[in-house]
Amino acid sequence: MSDATKSPLAARKKGAMEGSVSNRGGDTNTPVIYAEDLCKRYPEVTAVDSLCLEVGRGEIYGFLGRNGAGKTTTIRMLLGLIRPTRGRVLLFGKDVSTDRRAAVSSVGSLVETAASYTTLTVRENLEIQRRLTGTGREAMERAVAVLGLEEYVNRRAGRLSLGNKQRLSLARAILHNPRLLILDEPASGLDPAGIVEIRRLLRRLADEQRITVFVSSHILGEINQLADRIGIIHRGRLVEEFDARQAETEAQDRLEVRVSDPERAMLLLRTNMGIGDIKLREDRALEIAGTSGRPAAIARLLVEAGMELQALCPIREDLEARFMRLTGGEP
Amino acid sequence: MFFQVLYSEFLKLRRTKITWIVGLLYCFAPLALSFFMIILREPDLAQRMGLMTAKAQLTVGTADWPTYLSLIAIVLAGGTIVIGFIEAFVFGREYAEGTAKNMLTLPISRSMFVAAKIIVSMVWYTCIVVVVYGISILLGLLVGLPGFDPVLLERNIRLCLLVLLGTLLLSSLPAWIAVVGRGYLAPIGFTIFSSIVLGQIFLHTGWAPWVPWSIVFLTAGAGEPGAPVPGAGSFVVLAGVFVIGCILLYLSLDRADNTQ
Hints:
The structure holds two protein chains of two kinds. Helix content of chain A is 37%, strand content 24%. Chain A has helices spanning 3-6, 8-17, 71-78, 100-103, 122-133, 137-146, 162-174, 192-208, 220-226, 244-249, 262-273, 295-304, 319-326; strands spanning 33-41, 46-55, 60-65, 86-91, 94-95, 107-110, 180-184, 212-217, 229-234, 237-243, 255-259, 278-280, 286-288, 309-314. In chain A, the strands form three sheets. A six-stranded mixed beta sheet of chain A has the order 6-7-8-3-9-10, with helices on both faces. The longest helix of chain A has 17 residues, at 192-208. The radius of gyration of chain A is 24 Å and the shape is elongated. Residues 1-27 of chain A have low confidence and may be disordered. Chain B is mainly alpha-helical. Chain B is 76% helix and 0% strand. Chain B is built from 13 helices and no strands. Chain B has helices at residues 2-11, 17-41, 43-48, 54-60, 65-77, 79-96, 100-104, 110-143, 150-169, 172-181, 185-203, 212-219, 232-254. The longest helix of chain B has 34 residues, at 110-143. Chain B is globular. The interface between A and B is medium-sized, with 32 and 26 residues.
């Protein structure tokens, strides 16, 4: 694990010390989302703790976490719905606490559940959004077409299926051509085809229009296939942040080793090779981290020490395993 | 932009059954009043039907226009409950339907939403009052009450406008309660408590001209015989309550955590 992935906050501080704020995929020095030491405390719980975020233009940032991890609280702070106890949020360089209107002027959002005025039709719901964002009528038609809502435009929102309600909320979010989309569980309620459509839509918006997408979810597969970068939040803290593509392709540096005398093998690996991160599992197999480029040396050491090497294989850690490891579940 | 916010707030009322339900329920008041006048005019008939005793006639008055118009004013004072229900709907709905978060993430000053919603509520309630008053006068004419006098009607219209003003000035507090309570129940409970309990209890005390919910009833003439007439000071109290309600409303929308 690199320093950057070990501690995003440390990485930020390092970047700041170097005098630059990175901007992945952006063409300016201003990150689209910049959250610094964000903290939200309630009397009985700390919902978000010292969270730092930086998302550049055109990037799709996947925000993963279990239920109650702090995803929605973070999103609400990003949008100025909740005031942070500590820290600050800048959207397009504008402080959400002090200059909210300017900060959210180019933001489309979907927070938690899809919500609309149930007695109004799809068109009327979008008409309200259109008027309040000063957008032209053609944008409304485009949003309806993009989300496949043509046949429902005159139907009352209260009579839509859950999936179509979600589409309506997404149409509302993209209606005014925002430069940033903040979406909380956008696939909620959608059928598998709908999930694919939304994923393609978000990908297209990011690739073609360089719209930044900040998307939270607890569905790993959805984030894995969509995001450029992934942040994992657990108990209010951002425990890891990594490049999704890089994580997919990078060589795995964890090994599973089965030997005749695992306790002695542990000792040998520690003393002779300086490997500290070794775990003896219940099935008597050794799990060794930080072994990149050294499997042959490990095998040689164990065999030369007279041990019977029964198995030595890399452990492939996918997003699910990584997520479970970081959030305290079994891998 | 304010016009767009205002338009949107009116648009949100489209097809809501509650607008009609509130209006229709309130329209039962003049129907009941005119029926009451018939009973007063025909006490023998009413007693035969078991609707009213002879004693009741003594406490309410006689079946004529002065009595009828004074009762209309008292009915309109009961609008303190109706305006509370309207505010509960206009503000509480955003939380009940989960649309508050959509509204509050728009790049629009939250004070605009407060102003637009208050205006919409006031227009809605004023329309109801105009309809109720119009129906009341029509029914009074249909019943054929004696003693109609245009001067009396003009005086009553002025009185009812004053009652309307007082009622409208009480609209911001239930709106604030709706925002703080994140729904319908809290403002409805507050309205019932403030109008029926507080308003009626203090109406019969010397404090009535200074208790906001009693002032409206006192203005309408619902107090004891010889009760003080609310003056400018009472309406300053009402204006103060309105301003305080608006400030609390704005602060709750702008400063408090919006977690729904």
